[in-house]
Specification:
Immunoglobulin-like; five-stranded antiparallel sheet; 180 residues; mainly beta; 0% helix; single chain; four-stranded antiparallel sheet
Length: 180
Amino acid sequence: MCPELTDVRDHVTLQRRALDARWAAAWPGDSTGGGGVLSFDDPELPPGEVRFPELDAGTYRVIAEAPGCATLVTAPFELAQGEPPRALTLHLAPGLPARGRVLESTGAPAGGVDVRLRLGDLDVALGTTEEDGTYETRQLPAADVEGSLSARAFLDEVTVPLGPDRATLPDLVLPPVRRE
C-alpha cells in the first residue's frame, strides 16, 4: 500500500543537473545544491504539496520512491537566480504489482541476482531474486511510462524494455558466463 505523502519525507530526493548534464543530489542538503528545507507539514500548503526554499539557480527534478508506490520522477524544471521558493504538488500512486523471474542461459533459475528498473536516466533497485529466480515489486509505474528492466550477475547483464502488460514481466535471461 502506498503511504500518505506525509509519510514519505525520507523517500524524496531533489536533484540538480550539473554542468556535465548528470544529475546530483541537491536535497537533502549538499554543498552544491543550496540545501533547501523540505516542508510537508506547512499548514499553508495544500495536501500533497512540497516546497524547497533557498535553492540556487539551475535545473532540478524531484524523485519520490516509497514502498508500495510507483517511482515518481518529475519533469526537469528551471529556477532563475533570485526566484522565490517554488511549491510542487506530488501525487504518489500505488505501484503496479508485478512478478518476474531471472534465468540462467541454460534455463535454470538465477537466485541472488539484483533486478533494476530504469526510467529515463534514473535507476531504481527493485530487489534481489529468490532461490527460484523470481522477484516481486510494487514500484512499477503506469503503462504509459517508458522504462526497462535489467538483471546483473557479476559482469553479465541483460535488459528488456517494459511493455504495456505490467502484471507479468518478461523473463530476464542472463547471457552465458564469459570465460577469460
